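PROTEIN DESIGN WORKSHEET
SECTION A - STRUCTURE
LENGTH: 424
TOKENS:
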């Protein structure tokens, strides 16, 4: 599209990234998901590739995620004036540049020396929500600062009428110690994180064959402990244990991740306390449950006081042989109603996937492995290229399929072509 022929859009003109590639003689690398994955495989160490790509068990859940998208087809509409199409959406009172967010992914330093920081910057620049994992390899405060830097750059680049401040979520793995849990939540609130996403599908890692073969676990090797080592409560505990964060990196890594991840599953009775603590320290900001795959769990989370949920199966990395997340999204949306926020991740690879998830009930679609691969290939440039390509693809899809705004994308835009007798 020629921007000189169009009225000024109130949303970023993402599709011009295509024009830029044609003008400059090509893009940084192919944005096809298969090619991105293959290139990341070439660049990463055996351990880095294994941790990025491994799925639980036989990988059946990972395949189910992709098959679920293939069971739905878009029904294009012709002769629609899409010149002023708008990709913006609103989540919890914040106007976003597109219905796209970064999934929380831990220990980014196994993919790039700067870890989470370039990812946070790109998210801020593009006006997309950034999610920091409790298993991150930088401090909560540093991720926030770099997210704000990116947001300032995006403002200078005029990314459209979106919130200029970096929008970020803190993904919580609940420590076994309440004092440590409160400390993490307080730090996130003090650093301007806009929501807490409590992940409940990872009381321990799923059985991932290749990671186990390689003994591939960065935390036990002393990699990725910065978030814990920067926490005052955890630092005090290290002093009590006689451990030095600089000298005893392997033991500190083991203590940290075993404190927030392994060995203890929580039930619904713990949820009210977690919600109340986040609401108290944050002044009432939104709280979501991540890992929801059933109507019953979604309704229970809503009744417990959660402000929303992330429909996710951890991209197939936890429960082998489970349902595809997109398969359960429509029934969860129907059960919780139109006004309760649903985010979605697991298996998203393309602009069409984003479109389908929105049509089936997602308010916000989260991307994980694609930006990990981009980070592995070319650092900050790679993350930016992957996300700008996805945004351009989605923007162009809206154009050629005849949809002028996110509000127009609903169930009527799709036709189900799944296997006969499949449950809807």
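SECTION B - SEQUENCE
RESIDUE ASSIGNMENT:
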């Amino acid at each position: 599209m020629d921007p000189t022929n169009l009225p000024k859009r109130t949303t970023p003109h993402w599709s011009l990234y295509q024009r830029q590639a044609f003008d400059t003689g090509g893009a940084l690398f192919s944005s096809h998901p298969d090619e991105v994955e293959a290139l990341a495989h070439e660049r990463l160490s055996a351990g880095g590739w294994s941790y990025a790509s491994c799925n639980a068990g036989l990988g059946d859940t990972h395949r189910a995620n992709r098959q679920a998208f293939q069971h739905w087809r878009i029904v294009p509409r012709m002769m629609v004036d899409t010149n002023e199409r708008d990709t913006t959406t609103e989540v919890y009172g914040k106007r976003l540049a597109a219905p796209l967010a970064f999934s929380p992914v831990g220990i980014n330093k196994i993919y790039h020396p700067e870890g989470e920081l370039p990812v946070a910057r790109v998210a801020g620049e593009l006006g997309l929500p950034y999610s920091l994992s409790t298993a991150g390899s930088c401090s909560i405060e540093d991720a926030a600062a770099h997210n704000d830097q990116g947001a300032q750059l995006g403002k200078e680049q005029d990314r459209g009428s979106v919130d200029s401040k970096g929008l970020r979520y803190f993904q919580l793995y609940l420590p076994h110690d309440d004092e440590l849990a409160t400390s993490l939540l307080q730090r996130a609130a003090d650093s301007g994180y806009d929501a807490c996403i409590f992940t409940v599908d990872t009381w321990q890692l799923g059985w991932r064959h290749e990671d186990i073969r390689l003994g591939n676990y960065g935390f036990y090797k002393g990699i990725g402990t910065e978030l814990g080592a920067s926490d005052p409560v955890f630092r005090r505990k290290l002093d009590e244990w006689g451990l030095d964060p600089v000298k005893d990196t392997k033991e500190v890594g083991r203590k940290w991740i075993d404190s927030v991840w392994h060995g203890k599953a929580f039930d619904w009775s713990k949820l009210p306390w977690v919600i109340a603590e986040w609401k108290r320290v944050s002044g009432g900001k939104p709280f979501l449950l991540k890992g929801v795959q059933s109507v019953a769990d979604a309704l229970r989370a809503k009744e417990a006081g959660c402000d929303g949920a992330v429909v996710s199966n951890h991209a197939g990395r936890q429960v082998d042989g489970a349902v595809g997340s997109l398969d359960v999204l429509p029934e969860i949306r129907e059960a919780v109603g139109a006004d309760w926020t649903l985010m979605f991740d697991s298996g998203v690879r393309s602009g069409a996937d984003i479109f389908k998830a929105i049509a089936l009930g997602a308010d916000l679609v989260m991307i994980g492995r694609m930006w990990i691969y981009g980070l592995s290939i070319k650092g900050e440039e790679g993350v930016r290229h992957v996300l700008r390509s996805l945004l351009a693809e989605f923007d162009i899809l809206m154009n050629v399929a005849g949809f002028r705004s996110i509000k127009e994308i609903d169930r009527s835009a799709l036709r189900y072509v799944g296997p006969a007798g499949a449950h809807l």
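SECTION C - NOTES
The chain has 16 helices and twelve strands.
The two ends are 38 Å apart (CA to CA).
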